[in-house]
Amino acid sequence: MTKNTNQFLLLLLTFFAFTACKQEAKKENTDSTENTETTTENVLLQEWTGNYGGVPAFDKVKLEDVKPAMLKGMEMNLADIEKIANNPEPATFENTIEEMERAGQALDRAFTYYGILSSNMSSPEFREIDAELSPKFSEFQSKITQNEKLFQRIKTVYENSKQNPLEADQQRVVDLIYKSFEMNGAELSPEKKERYAAINKELSTLYTKFSNNVLHDEEGYITYLDSTQLGGLSEGFIKSAAKIATDNGKEGMYAITNTRSSMDPFLTYSTERELREKVWKNYYSRGDNADEYDNNKIIEEILKLRRERVELLGYENYAQWRLQDRMAKTPENAMNLMETVWKASIARVDEEVKDMQAVADKNGDNIKIEPWDYRFYAEKVRQAKYDLDSDEVKQYLQLDKLTEAMHYVAGRLFGYKFTPVPEGSVPVFHEDVKVWEVTNQDTGENIGLWYLDPYARKGKRSGAWATSYRSHTTFDGKKNVLASNNSNFVKSAPGQPLLVSWDDATTFFHEFGHALHALSSNVKYPTLNGGVRDYTEFQSQLLERWLSTDEVIDNYLVHQETGEPMPKELVAKIKKASTFNQGFGTTEYLASALIDMKLHLADPANIDVDKFERETLDKLGMPKELVMRHRTPHFGHVFSGEGYATAYYGYMWADVLTADAAEAFAEAEGGFYDAEMAEKLVKYLFAPRNAIDPAEAYKLFRGRDADMKALMRDRGFPVK
Question: Partners of 418 in the beta sheet?
Answer without folding.
Answer: 438
